[in-house]
Amino acid sequence: MTKTLYLTRPQFEAEISRCLNCKNRPCMKACPIGCNPQEFIKLAKDGDFEGAVNSIVSANPMGQTCGLICPDKFCMKSCTRSHIDFPVNIPKVQASIMHEHHNLPGSAPQAKSNGHKIAVIGAGPAGIAACTQLLKNNFAVTLFESTDHIGGALNLIPSNRLPVEVLNKEWSFVKQNPLLETRFNTKVTDINALLAQGFEHVIVASGEPNGIDLNVEGENLAVSYLDFLNHPQKYIATGNVAVIGGGAVAVDCAITAKQNGASFVEMFIRRRVSDMRITNDERQTLLDNGIDLTSMTKIKKISHQNSLLTLYTCKNRFTDGKLEEIPGTTVARPDFELVIKAIGSSAPHFDDTDKIIYAGDCKTGGSTAVEALASGKSAALSIISKYIKKAS
Ligand SMILES: Cc1cc2nc3c(=O)[nH]c(=O)nc-3n(C[C@H](O)[C@H](O)[C@H](O)COP(=O)(O)OP(=O)(O)OC[C@H]3O[C@@H](n4cnc5c(N)ncnc54)[C@H](O)[C@@H]3O)c2cc1C
Ligand code: SF4
Questions:
Q1: Do 215 and 340 reside in the same domain of the chain?
Q2: Whole domain around residue 158: which residue ranges?
Q3: Ligand 2 atom closest to the CA of 60, numbered from 1
Q4: pLDDT in tens, 64-79
Q5: Of 176, 173, 124, 174, nearest to 146 (Cα)?
Q6: Which of 66, 113, 136, 389 is the most exposed, having the fewest neighbouring CB atoms within 10 Å of its CB?
Q7: Alpha carbon nearest to ligand 2 atom 4, residue
Q8: What's the pLDDT tens digit per position in 197-219?
């Protein structure tokens, strides 16, 4: 079942009319990047959509993206309306305002460099937020990106949740700034060399590029979520598909496999279904798509038989709050055409120096788009504050 991404006019009116206009702004306090839903909803109620858009973009350069994919654990969780009935669907309101009223940019802005040159590595949300903040303060920025496109891990999110046009639209506002130079297809291998070239600081926003291993026999028979979501057409399977993992990324893999034509998709989850760190919408999508969930299960081995794959699984239990394997429960689960592993990602950890600042998932570990954006923005603000007394 395909969900509509934006609210219809009557749905939008109904949703904003439910906002209580709380003066203490719990929704803004809960937003990692400081978007102000109380303000933009009030402006929308008054018919000032330009003001509403400005309110969103002044805090967040990817307000439409966030509106489409922010989980309900931030602004929505704090919404006072939930004490009466249920929270205002702030992300959808935000996405709808941006979709309808944030029009493509016209002429490029005039900008005069303040004379300082900064390098940003990575064009994911953290890198984009860092660039935006630096450009706003007239720094000359060079953005290095190893691929030929922006968005980083956001490109792995299926297009029925996040169409690529939304990323391109938001990027079009950033890229028109004459103080920005972009170097796509350029992988940075030596950060110190950038400093030697005259960049005063480097913001590293390179994400978490490595999928975590299961460390079991036959692991090489499984496809990593990175490969699968990057090239779903390469892994079309019409039979049974197993997805190992129970987070939001595993959910995207399961739904994509189903939409690719799999007759049966089963997710294998280490913990309980109630422990899955996914939103209510994601739970609903699993139900809508008839995805099977096998919880409290550990993968012991993967093997190849008659061109199909067999998973050897055993049951887990909690002992003193710790997850442990129940002896004697190993069974073979044959007949999978494809096994996808989606148990998380990792990146080597480095500490900030005066000149090199890390931001986004490479600093905090796998997070969310809005947290990566907030981290990139804060890395830029830490540089700006060195040069400009009152950074905005
Ligand atoms: C399948 C999936 C579903 C997700 N769903 C959601 C969701 O619903 N909601 C949500 O909020 N978040 C979601 N996320 C998480 C979100 O996408 C990430 O938290 C966010 O993209 C991290 O941003 P980042 O800028 O830190 O890193 P990334 O987005 O990973 O960007 C890093 C960029 O750096 C580039 N790079 C790396 N090394 C170099 C180098 N040496 N030189 C030059 N460039 C380099 C990479 O090519 C990449 O473009 C999802 C992630 C995945 C994978
Ligand atoms: S950016 Fe995300 S968390 Fe912040 S107000 Fe908007 S939808 Fe909520």
A1: yes
A2: 117-209+347-387
A3: 1
A4: 999 999 999 999 999 9
A5: 124
A6: 389
A7: 31
A8: 999 999 999 998 788 999 999 99
